[in-house]
Design goal:
Layout (H helix, E strand, L loop, with lengths): L2 E7 L11 H11 L2 H4 L4 E5 L13 H13 L3 E6 L1 H4 L9 H4 L3 E3 L8 E8 L2 E7 H5 L2 E7 L11 H6 L5 H9 L15 H9 L6 E3 L7 E3 L23 H19 L7 E7 L21 E5 L2 H12 L22 H6 L7 H8 L7 E5 L20
Parallel strand pairs: 1-12, 2-3, 2-7, 3-4, 7-10
Antiparallel strand pairs: 1-11, 5-6, 8-9, 10-11
Length: 389
């Protein structure tokens, strides 16, 4: 059965407040019956509060409306994120006064408040799930959509998978990309050739190991799979393999399943705000030019359907190539626009596929536009010379 995903288009037919995204968010919250569901609940509003001089995260005006809806319904809301963002959030306009509720570090200020969940996946054996989220009785996943150097795309899954675990778990999740072997030094015994392989990458994605110069490491965040290194490397010595890139996506899905598993069914909603979508994660602590047009706001009880719908709607648009930083490269125009920038093996749909396999939701959805654009009829335009006006 298809899950409903409620959608508010970023476009307006008329210059009216009710046609703007904050008001469309209100309609989505009504459609999700949020106020009716939160009475007596402790509600964790998980979002990314950014860092440094970033200003493209979810604007406080949206957060305030979510907070007020929870309070109107008799819930007790708080906003939460990892410590470094939560404890500096005031620098970017997030305060208890502006949002209407407290802001707490998700695992405490020193990231020592967490619960251990055991599940083996490649190099990850234990997952530290943040205490403030696990202790809450209701979850609102309020995510800003953007590109991501590890997986091409960051939305609802990324917001929970990396934002609701402790630092050690985040690090281990990123290291899953190195679990499957990609460098075979016995097939490249020549030091000069190894140096040429490293130098062939214009993005600094390849480095020689400091302790063992016969080993080459790939920094997968920087790799867009352009293949320049493969043209230099001896046959069989280096692989650019989808399995390495997919590992991080599957780790995200697993972490998200562990987080969501701490909540009772029906006590979670998911919201994606697809505006000012930048090339990389808000963790970078700055905001660049948007690489895609503003799309709108999405809401659902189904995280898988939400992400699928968000990606599908974004996929109708072309990358704004003139806004891509000069240090990055668009070398393919196949697949999703986020793949144009980050490469085909950073497929943004993979995390959705893994999430569905884990039983987190369905990729089948019904997109419900909560305010379809009104068609405005006009008389045919006639040209009047300026000197006759």
């Amino acid at each position: 059965m298809a899950s409903k995903v409620f959608f508010g288009d970023a476009r307006q037919a008329r210059l009216r407040a009710e046609e703007t995204l904050p008001m469309k968010l209100d309609r989505i919250l009504d459609a999700l019956h949020l106020r009716d569901r939160v009475k007596g609940e402790t509600v964790a509003i998980k979002m990314h509060l950014g860092g440094n001089v970033g200003y493209s995260t979810v604007h406080p005006v949206f957060v305030r409306r979510v907070v007020q809806a929870v309070k109107d319904g008799g819930g007790k809301p708080f906003v939460t994120d990892h410590a470094s963002s939560a404890m500096t959030a005031w620098q970017r306009g997030y305060t208890e006064e502006t949002l209407g509720c407290p802001i707490y570090p998700v695992a405490g200020p020193d990231e020592k408040y967490y619960y251990v969940h055991k599940k083996e996946y490649k190099n990850v054996k234990e997952w530290g799930i943040a205490g403030m989220v696990q202790d809450a009785s209701f979850l609102i996943d309020l995510a800003h959509v953007k590109g991501h150097p590890s997986c091409g795309f960051g939305g609802a899954f990324k917001n929970l998978a990396l934002g609701c675990v402790i630092r050690e778990t985040r690090s281990a999740m990123h290291d899953t990309v190195h679990y499957d072997k990609y460098w075979f030094k016995e097939k490249c015994p020549d030091a000069a050739t190894r140096q040429k392989i490293v130098e062939s990458c214009p993005f600094g994605a390849l480095t020689l190991d400091k302790e063992d110069p016969e080993e080459i490491h790939i920094h997968f965040d920087n790799c867009n799979q352009c293949g320049r290194c493969l043209r230099v490397a001896p046959p069989g010595s280096l692989k650019i393999d989808p399995v390495n890139f997919a590992s991080f996506q599957e780790a995200q899905a697993i972490a998200t399943s562990l987080v969501l598993g701490t909540f009772e069914p029906g006590k979670m909603i998911f919201i994606n705000l697809a505006t000012h979508m930048t090339p990389v994660c808000d963790c970078f602590g700055f905001t660049g030019l948007p690489i895609l047009p503003d799309v709108g706001v999405f809401g659902s009880d189904d995280i898988v359907a939400l992400e699928q719908a968000t990606l599908d709607v974004i996929g109708r648009h072309r990358l704004i190539e003139e806004n891509v930083p000069a240090s990055m490269e668009v070398h393919t125009r196949d697949g999703h626009p986020f793949q144009w920038l980050h490469g085909p093996y950073k497929n943004p749909y993979w995390v959705v596929e893994y999430g569905e396999k884990l039983g987190l939701g369905s990729r089948e959805y019904e997109l419900v536009d909560i305010m379809p654009l009104e068609k405005i009829e006009r008389a045919p335009l006639s040209y009047i010379p300026a000197d006759q006006m």
